[in-house]
Amino acid sequence: xxxxxxxxxxxxxxxxxxxxxxxxxxxxxxxxxxxxxxxxxxxxxxxxxxxxxxxxxxxxxxxxxxxxxxxxxxxxxxxxxxxxxxxxxxxxxxxxxxxxxxxxxxxxxxxxxxxxxxxxxxxxxxxxxxxxxxxxxxxxxxxxxxxxxxxxxxxxxxxxxxxxxxxxxxxxxxxxxxxxxxxxxxxxxxxxxxxxxxxxxxxxxxxxxxxxxxxxxxxxxxxxxxxxxxxxxxxxxxxxxxxxxxxxxxxx
Length: 252
Prior knowledge:
With 252 residues, this protein is an alpha/beta fold. Helices cover 50% and strands 15% of the residues.
């Protein structure tokens, strides 16, 4: 039996959703996105879960959307729903505190997923990138702006440049950076503190803080995705980028 694409566990008030596609650096396929949605539904409905950790496998949080799968659809010229974006949106919609335990590449849809979480803890080898403009898309602009501010968000979105872990902490993209072998202990300490707090107060605090920075940016980004995804400019740029990228997984 093949290993599941998403692994869910619950212990001591902490729910974990682990992306489990290490051979593709946890590139998010449609099948994985559907399982992520189901996992979040289960964790949100479980009263024993007070905080949710979103994590990848060792050395890989998520390199983004599955480009091989996506490219086949885009070449057909079909404008379609984006499952990886929907999965990130489902994480962002959770009423419970969420933590992204980040190790390795955090690209494209993976960066969107990380930004959807309330807290981001990264290892020293983590790298963030928002390559949507390179592919003819808008990916992560709404969440990024609330974290790093408008001017810097525009720079990172317009240029698609890589942000290392130290810079990510400095600009507010990550809450903290830890040694590669210290991630698990750091997450355990943080989740224990959150799980010990009032779950109702934590959920209300999340609602209040989100309301303080909310607007129509998320809805507008979804509108941009529908307008751009599968169009001529996107198909051309995406195909070109796919040809340049090597390795086991990649981000869109």
